[in-house]
Write a structure and sequence with these properties.
This protein has 177 residues and is of the alpha/beta class. It has a single domain, classed as Vaccinia Virus protein VP39 (Rossmann fold, 3-Layer(aba) Sandwich), CATH 3.40.50.150. Helices cover 23% and strands 24% of the residues. The chain contains five helices and seven strands. A seven-stranded mixed β-sheet has the order 3-2-1-4-5-7-6, sandwiched between helices. The longest helix has 10 residues. The radius of gyration is 15 Å and the shape is globular. The relative contact order is 0.18.
């Protein structure tokens, strides 16, 4: 098992696993067009690019990665903030559609981020079934995921995506309690 990494660890990342973003987009289709989608841990802006001209805010703690995101999705808003710091939670308290792709497994206090999302909000998130040097946790199955987050989320649909290395990502659609 790995440990939390600083922003500089992710500077060289330019990761794209297209089925992950396509699945998240599918789960967001029922979000009203005029509602802002907030992506916590937005990375290089792939989701922002995919959703096009919808209202979007991406938040990440890597300035270098945000630079890539701004180039990729010019019409989207990106904010530099460290979600490990609870002071950043105020940025998104007026929104109700959230995406967290490949972020929760990297943060020790992941539950604090989930708990900070406003009640009633739609939440789309992914977590892995494999270990990595940057993962502070991973899940053997979907039941482990539900057990970890059941205090804060009501679960809807779930998709298992298999990456080329035969590693899986669980992608959930949920509602914040």
């Amino acid at each position: 098992m790995g440990e939390e990494k600083e922003a500089s660890f992710y500077t060289g990342f330019n990761y794209l696993f297209a089925p992950l973003y396509e699945t998240a987009f599918k789960y967001l289709r029922d979000v009203p067009f005029n509602e802002t989608i907030v992506e916590l841990g937005c990375g290089c802006g792939y989701l922002a690019e995919l959703i096009g001209n919808r209202a979007y805010i991406g938040i990440d703690f890597s300035r270098a990665v945000l630079e890539k995101a701004r180039k990729r999705a010019k019409g989207s808003m990106f904010i530099f903030a460290d979600l490990r710091d609870s002071k950043s939670f105020g940025i998104y308290q007026n929104f109700h559609a959230f995406v967290l792709l490949e972020i929760l497994e990297h943060i020790t206090a992941d539950w604090k981020i989930i708990a900070s999302i406003p009640s009633g909000s739609k939440v789309v998130f992914s977590v892995p079934d494999f270990n990595s040097k940057a993962h502070v946790r991973w899940f053997k199955n979907q039941e482990e995921v539900k057990e970890r987050y059941r205090e804060w989320l009501v679960f809807g649909d779930m998709t298992i995506l298999t990456k080329p290395e035969n590693k899986n990502l669980f992608v959930f659609e949920a509602r914040r309690l």
